[in-house]
Task: inverse folding
């Protein structure tokens, strides 16, 4: 039975520079990188050394916790450098791409008769497993676990979010194949959640329960959708797959080709012409940004402005994101800024005038707009978190490292991104997502 | 602006690590961030942040108190001249009344801010934490809930007590259990009851000869003897209960400096509600709590005070002020939305109950709110427990 869920709490932050529905091609960049840091908590074990030749689909490293979870090269070329950080932690594996692309060979996979284990094997072998995340904890799924259901969010409600219908235009069949494959991975249902009134092709998807959501961000986040459709209780596991990743999985299964090209939105107030681009996972940002972004002190974000990762201009497109957001940095102190009317600033509180101009779009920068403080205001988080739990109490349990309380208050149900709006709204500038991540990490250690 | 920015940039090295005054960095920071919202940018997590910060939040509350403060100044003068038999018309001698009031009230405000901020800065420097903006509000609320005749040194002592024992020992703003401003008032009330109650403290007569029939009694004190016959400071009786209600609502009656005018307080409430800074849940439930207790007393009717008209009951004394500015303090109030309803209702309910039952001192709102401040974490605890149970049940249904 498909469900209709009305999300009442939350907020849409309207920013200047959402991507227009046109697509440009980018040239194959000479430099790529696969970033273990895109997979939280995963410790990589390198299979190849610097200088090794790779093809598209050649495994480069695997997860220490499960050697079958392999991470494959998105292109053919040579491993140029393994960039390490503190304690020799691997940050990036850089690959110089060949001008002529070669792939590992594989055959199309006919999975119609596969059981769960076989389906998982097929994805593990193809290096497609890292697309599957699990709740609780928001980390890569464990192939030996049986999830009670799988969630795919069919829309991105975040500020400057990509239109997944547009991204998947022409790839509907790949998407369906991917959905078919996912349905083999669980005894339960695959939930595909679409936005009401979006006219999404996904409404007719097979082998999935299509649920409809209405309401503001964070309605499009899988964490929120899981909470309303099939909440995670202690001991239960739900998997989450991004919609474009479903199509990438489907494309591989259908053709047997290792093809990591994807379409992303390049958006934000500092983009000359916000639109969609055809590019590749791990592509150097240079190939994406050059000539497309205004000069100036910009923040480049892999993902959306609420929960994406900060990238440097010589960085690389992340594994998961469908959006690159570019907004101005806000390093300029503002005289009596806390007192000024500030018509150019956006606030969810009504202490600025933005609530009187609901349709205005804003060019927000990265200024903190204040300083860190202890919790003072109450009720702000609850207003933007459409979950039946008490976020401030959960955060306090995390701060005091009280595992039992964290469990009781719902640590299993949250991912950092679910509470990103809380962090945005916070008067006291509390680093909510960082705290949630710490809480999840503690829970992984203590509870497994 | 640029010039000021340059001054800060120039003296800043003195306060940074290795500078001459590095120990005073937090004091410098407090002043600098007051003048300029710093150019700090986000690092991880949310890349954009809401425009709201604690400075603006607190300052808006201060603005919300200004109608009550200005009215309090005028009213201090009005009551003074009324007692002396001068300018007995409301409209007469506006400037005289206002200036007289200002000379009485402003010193209290100054002492409150000077002592409070002094201690806040001192502790911030000593403990190397940032100066929190919370005291901007407490510093204004403390004068507004003092009787005008309170000695300045008592204001200083009470402020020091409130800031240190009421707040800093718990870790500063955000960690305190009791409302700091009410802590200051409760301290004075128990330490120096003669200066906080009775008939001598509400009107500043400066020892001059008063008119015949002057008592200095507040409406609350008069309610002990009769629920229908009230007189003003000139000894003139109000024509009816509704005349009394009108005077109490408008605020030209004796009382603590800022508490008398429901109208001025409601203006502040309008700002707090429009900006969403004051909790409407608490204000509404507090009001309903007080109203229901008043009606219950009406039904009971064992003494004159119980028979006071419910609307007059709420317009008198500190009820409105407590509702708008005291009970809504987000730190000491309940934090959950359900908890706010319970907390507000009980605070109003108990406030009126204590007011009527306590013969020694006919005002209980302060006690009602302080008591509920203490109870707020307990209320929240049960609200959160209920949530936990509800979510545990989910498993039971599925399994």
Result:
């Amino acid at each position: 039975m498909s469900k209709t869920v009305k999300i009442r709490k939350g907020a849409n932050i309207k920013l200047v520079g959402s991507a227009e529905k046109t697509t440009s091609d980018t040239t194959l960049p000479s430099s790529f990188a696969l970033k273990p840091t895109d997979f939280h908590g995963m410790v990589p074990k390198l299979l190849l050394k610097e200088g090794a030749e790779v093809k598209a689909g050649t495994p480069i490293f695997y997860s220490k916790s499960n050697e079958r979870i392999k991470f494959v090269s998105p292109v053919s070329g040579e491993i140029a450098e393994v960039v390490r950080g503190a304690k020799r932690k691997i940050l990036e594996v850089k690959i110089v791409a060949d001008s002529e692309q070669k792939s590992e060979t594989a055959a199309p996979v006919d999975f119609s008769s596969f059981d769960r284990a076989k389906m998982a094997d097929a994805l593990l072998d193809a290096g497609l497993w890292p697309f599957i995340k699990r709740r609780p904890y928001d980390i890569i799924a464990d192939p030996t676990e049986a999830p009670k259901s799988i969630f795919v969010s069919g829309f991105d409600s975040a500020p400057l979010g990509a239109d997944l219908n547009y991204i998947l235009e022409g790839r509907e069949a790949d998407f369906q194949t991917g959905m078919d494959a996912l349905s083999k991975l669980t005894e339960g249902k695959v939930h595909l959640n679409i936005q009401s009134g979006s006219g999404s092709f996904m409404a007719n998807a097979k082998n999935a329960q299509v649920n409809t959501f209405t309401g503001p961000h964070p309605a499009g986040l899988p964490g929120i959708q899981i909470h309303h459709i099939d909440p995670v209780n202690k001991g239960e596991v739900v998997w989450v797959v991004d919609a474009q990743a479903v199509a990438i999985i489907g494309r591989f299964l259908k053709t047997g080709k290792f093809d990591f090209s994807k379409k992303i939105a390049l958006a934000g107030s500092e983009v000359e012409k916000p639109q969609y681009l055809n590019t590749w996972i791990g592509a150097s940002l240079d190939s994406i940004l050059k000539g497309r972004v205004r000069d100036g002190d910009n923040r480049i974000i892999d993902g959306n402005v609420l929960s994406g990762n900060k990238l440097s201009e010589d960085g690389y497109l992340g594994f998961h994101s469908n959006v690159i957001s570019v907004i101005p940095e806000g390093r300029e102190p503002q005289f009596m800024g806390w007192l000024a009317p500030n018509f150019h600033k956006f606030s969810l509180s009504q202490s600025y005038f933005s609530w009187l101009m609901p349709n205005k779009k804003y060019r927000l920068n990265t200024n903190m707009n204040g300083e860190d403080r202890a919790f003072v205001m109450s009720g702000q988080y609850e207003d933007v978190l459409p979950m039946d739990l008490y976020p401030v109490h959960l955060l306090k349990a995390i701060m005091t490292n009280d595992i039992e309380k964290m469990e009781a208050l719902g640590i299993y149900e949250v991912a950092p991104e679910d509470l990103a709006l809380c962090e945005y709204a916070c008067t006291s500038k509390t680093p909510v997502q960082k705290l949630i991540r710490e809480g999840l990490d503690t829970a992984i250690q203590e509870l497994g | 602006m640029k010039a000021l920015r340059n001054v800060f940039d120039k003296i800043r090295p003195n306060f940074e690590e290795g500078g001459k005054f590095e120990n005073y960095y937090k004091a410098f920071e407090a002043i600098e961030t007051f003048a300029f919202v710093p150019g700090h940018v986000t690092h991880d997590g949310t890349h954009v942040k809401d425009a709201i910060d604690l400075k603006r939040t607190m300052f808006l509350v201060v603005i919300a108190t200004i109608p009550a403060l200005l009215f309090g100044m005028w009213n201090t003068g009005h009551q003074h001249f009324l007692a002396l038999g001068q300018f007995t018309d409301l409209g007469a001698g506006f400037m005289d009344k206002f200036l007289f009031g200002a000379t009485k009230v402003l010193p209290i405000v100054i002492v409150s801010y000077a002592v409070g901020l002094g201690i806040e800065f001192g502790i911030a420097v000593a403990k190397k934490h940032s100066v929190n903006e919370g005291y901007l509000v407490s510093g204004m609320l403390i004068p507004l809930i003092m009787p005008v005749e309170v000695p300045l040194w008592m204001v200083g002592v009470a402020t020091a007590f409130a800031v240190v024992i009421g707040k800093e020992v718990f870790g500063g703003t955000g960690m305190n259990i009791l409302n700091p401003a009410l802590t200051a008032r409760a301290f004075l009330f128990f330490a120096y009851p003669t200066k906080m109650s009775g008939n001598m403290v509400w009107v500043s007569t400066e020892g001059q000869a008063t008119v015949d029939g002057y008592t200095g009694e507040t409406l609350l004190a008069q309610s002990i003897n009769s629920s229908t016959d009230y007189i003003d400071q000139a000894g003139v009786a109000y024509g009816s209960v509704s005349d009394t209600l009108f005077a109490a609502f408008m605020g030209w009656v004796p009382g603590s400096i800022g508490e008398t005018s429901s109208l001025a307080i409601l203006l502040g409430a309008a700002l707090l509600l429009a900006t969403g800074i004051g909790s409407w849940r608490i204000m509404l439930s507090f009001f309903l709590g007080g109203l229901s207790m008043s009606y219950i007393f009406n039904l009971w009717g064992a003494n004159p005070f119980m028979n006071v008209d419910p609307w007059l009951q709420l317009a008198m004394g500190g009820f409105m002020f407590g509702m708008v500015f005291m009970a809504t303090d987000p730190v000491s109030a309940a934090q959950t939305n359900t908890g706010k309803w319970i907390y507000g209702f009980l605070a109003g309910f108990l406030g009126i109950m204590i007011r009527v039952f306590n013969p020694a001192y006919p005002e209980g709102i302060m006690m009602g709110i302080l008591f509920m401040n203490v109870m707020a974490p307990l209320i929240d605890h049960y609200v959160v427990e209920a949530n936990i149970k509800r979510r545990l049940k989910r498993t039971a249904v599925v399994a």
In short: The first helix of chain B runs from residue 2 to 15. The radius of gyration of chain B is 23 Å. Chain B has three domains: 2-35, 55-207+241-277, 279-391. Chain B touches chain A through 62 residues (CB under 8 Å).
